[in-house]
Prior knowledge:
heterodimer; A: alpha+beta; 11 helices; 8 strands; B: alpha/beta; 7-stranded mixed β-sheet
Amino acid sequence: xxxxxxxxxxxxxxxxxxxxETRARPGSEPGQQDQRDGWPEGSTQATNExxxxxxxxxxxxxxxxxxxxxxxxxxxxHHPLLFRLLGLREVLxxxxxxxxxxxxxxxxxxxxxxxxxxxxxxxxLAAPRGRPERLLAATAAVAGVTWLDxxxxxxxxxxxxxxxxxxxxxxxxxxxxxxEDLYRFWRDFHNLPTIMPHLESVESTDGAxxxxxxxxxxxxxxxxxxxxxxxxxxxLLAWRSLEGAEMENSGTVxxxxxxxxxxxxxxxxxxxxxxxxxxxALFAKMLGREPATELREGLRRFKQxxxxxxxxxTDGQSAGHSGLARxxx
Amino acid sequence: MKAVCWYGKNTVEVExxxxxxxxxxxxxxxxxxxxxxCGSDLHLYDGYIPTMKRGDIxxxxxxxxxxxxxxxxxxxxxxxRVVVPFTISCGKCFFCQHDQWSxxxxxxxxxxxxxxxxxxxxxxxxxxxxxxxxxxxxxxEYLRVPFADVGALKIPDGLPDEQVLFLSDVFPTGYMAAENxxxxxxxxxxxxxxxxxxxxxxxxxxxxxxxxxxxxxxVPERLRMAREHGKADILNFDDQDIFDKLLEMTGGRGPDxxxxxxxxxxxxxxxxxxxxxxxxAGLFLGTDRPHALRQAIHAxxxxxxxxxxxxxxxxxxxxxFGAAFNKGLTxxxxxxxxxxxxxPLLDRxxxxxxxxxxxxxxxxxLDDAPRGYELFKHKQDGCIKIVLQx
Lengths: 329, 390
């Protein structure tokens, strides 16, 4: 197959450090492509890592020696299967934390695991034939770890962007019209839903601010307010979403006169944080709503409208029966 | 209305489908008065072109009378007689404005499909797979013509349909093939394939100053037409070795200009490479059967031109690019830039320089289209060109 790269397009997935991300102005150069830690602060990193390893250590012990462990903490009766399941949970949490993908989620899973452990310990304390002194010691130990887990989870969650996956897209199209004409179309954000069908509406709320509604999936909408951060008539528009956006995003459109009177090169650059992170982005792709494709097709429609006054279509044209209708005939 | 619909390899049927309607401001609807089956329709009939869907309406050589226009169509009126080119062009993009109409940026709603295969997408076409737009074709009683203000060519009264119908594709296509040769005084032009495009390429080569045209085919009726109407010398590739014969006829130099009017499904029973192509295509190991192209490049004079109006779609095997390079050949190709040629060729018809109706061998009713496809595919009954009348 030929190289399927589209000239003028590039899509990079940035798993960016939030501190760098906030520094990145809209319109700054394509960002960092390296994958960085999800840890927000250096100081908590050691604790997080220690808890991750602790999870794995405890889990392995539960998996490998369930009976020994049960005896040690004074549990009445034999529950090897239960201990192995608990062990599995511990190992998963530990791996999740150490892999640093969404560590807050995994840290929170540790907290729920702790709650489950405490509930079990409570039940065993109330049961006959247990060894209360050992169970109480175990309970105290788990309570201590729970406190640590909660503290770490809260700290990680307090930095919601620590784990975000910013997607960065650039694409370009050449349109046989003047930069001024093309700028005018974009400046009126109302026009955008006609070329970008995944946008339901864009309304100006005041001069520089606008309210955007996008279709995320059938029946689901994302809304945000955005403001213009730069506006150079006939040359450039830049915007970014405001506080409270359901999808944080920013972008620029540049209009450059092409050499030799060949119209205008329109360069669009967009950064956004897909809701639900990478999983959300993957889901969108499976639904055929991959934003990079939507953007490319949107720019194609923009060109078609600006050059010809309409968008070519075959929707609603005639065709012979196909499939079932034909079999019934 | 009735329409000729594609249902798979070797299956077309005349069906009753809804009448077309205006979908965009620059659309027009025409009532078809004459429409033809093209050699390239056989590529669809043979299942050679990907992205066809069951029920697609075929046909891209239509003419008729305007019955309805969209609100932005200022150049046509209901009642106008028009010929509609097989390519759809917007008239506003860089390519249209540089007379490269078949490379229009804006008329293929499925441009992304073509981009996967070709990098960037050429113009939309009537009735020629979804990769080229999926537009319903003109083998029907009515046709929706997108961008009709740029596409449809008005025909003056007094010229019968049969004289102007082939302005829709094969006449301009043969003409552009000859023009792409950059013919100089004294040139010998060899034309592979004596179907309708080949016949018009032969005529056009003489119109453009060729000294001699050599026509190559295997079908006796086609060769006879090339000799009688086209005044060409003829070679039957079943009877003789084409390369040796061409060199002998040109004093050892080879034809100055070579036209491959065959395209992707070359028949050449006796030659090893053509048999191998057919086997590979049958096993889905190859996409095209470029036997004629190979031979044209091999035979062409040093510094000569190979012009390719024949349609190719994929990744061609064993094309002698070394020969093309080392002999300094010029290769020119592509779908026809219809709007560049239709009006000047209409003028030539009006001046009686050419009467394109000579290629018609069969006139059938639209209902007989399935039989027409069979006749044309198997070259039965002397079939060279079929005109359908709704």
